[in-house]
Design brief:
With 266 residues, this protein is an all-alpha fold. The chain is globular and about 60 Å long. It has one domain.
Length: 266
């Protein structure tokens, strides 16, 4: 069955070496020719974190309603952005993930279904470095604790959601070139509609269920909870996981259904 999740992820695992090479190539090409090269993987998030610390720590002196004493606001903001950026980078780049490799698509033996996984892999590489910087910042500010190790587990639903949407959008991107313009705008809207810059508690009560049980809201709130060392809403996280797993399966099925027409469209 094409909708068997074990078969889907086994297919990805079977081509893990090829996928790893494509992800490596994608990441290195992004920084090729730059003065600092791949060091930008560290430099970019460090600069972003420094700006957050200055703007929200010194100028606005903002605080989270549930913020523990001494926990910097900018760390809470940064933790939410790590989770969101994995999703955002994957989805924003997915419309061109197949269209950018016409020679691969036209090769019968090439596993085309792994192409939409490449943006996700690159996003996870960047997310991994961002997480290391978060750990360093928590240690530096004296707020490191064992619970933070749950952070990678908690963003799994967003990884599944990003993967499913990547399969959907990469297939549409082959036929509809406007997707490259539409999707980034949609992702930018989601940034402000998700609880990245504010907690769910700041949302009007009538809208809170939407924020608590949509995948983005549930995962961002859960990942932020472990940073603050507060209990995770595992019920909402479980709902998000089930929904995102369903999206990933349907995305794969849609991609496989559409792939026979890729070569003609390209």
């Amino acid at each position: 069955m094409i909708l068997n999740p074990l078969r889907i992820f086994a297919d990805i695992w079977r081509h893990r070496y090829l996928l790893g090479q494509l992800i490596k190539r994608d990441v290195l090409l992004r920084y090729r020719g730059a003065m600092f090269g791949v060091l930008w993987i560290f430099i970019s998030p460090l600069l972003m974190l420094a700006i957050f610390a200055f703007i929200f720590g010194q100028i606005f002196q903002a605080r989270w309603p549930q913020q523990d004493a001494g926990m910097p606001f900018w760390l809470l903001l940064y933790s939410g952005l790590i989770a969101f950026n994995v999703f955002a980078e994957t989805v924003s780049r997915s419309p061109t993930s197949v269209r950018s490799y016409p020679n691969f698509v036209k090769k019968i033996i090439f596993p085309v279904s792994i192409l939409p996984v490449v943006p996700l892999g690159a996003a996870l590489v960047h997310g991994g470095f961002n997480f290391l910087i978060l750990l360093a910042a928590l240690t530096w500010t004296g707020h490191m604790h064992a619970g933070i190790l749950l952070f990678p587990l908690l963003i799994v639903p967003l990884v599944l959601l990003a993967l499913g949407l990547s399969w959907f959008l990469s297939a549409w991107g082959v036929f509809i070139k406007d997707m490259t313009q539409i999707v980034p705008v949609f992702v930018q809207m989601l940034l402000f509609l998700s609880p990245v810059f504010y907690p769910v508690g700041a949302v009007p009560p009538s809208l809170r269920p939407f924020y608590q049980y949509n995948p983005l809201g549930a995962v961002i709130e859960a990942s932020r909870a472990v940073v603050i060392d507060q209990p995770v809403e595992w019920g909402a996280w479980g709902v998000a996981f089930g929904f995102c797993l369903g999206v990933s399966i349907l995305g794969y099925a849609f991609f496989q259904h559409s792939r026979e027409e890729f070569a003609d469209a390209l």
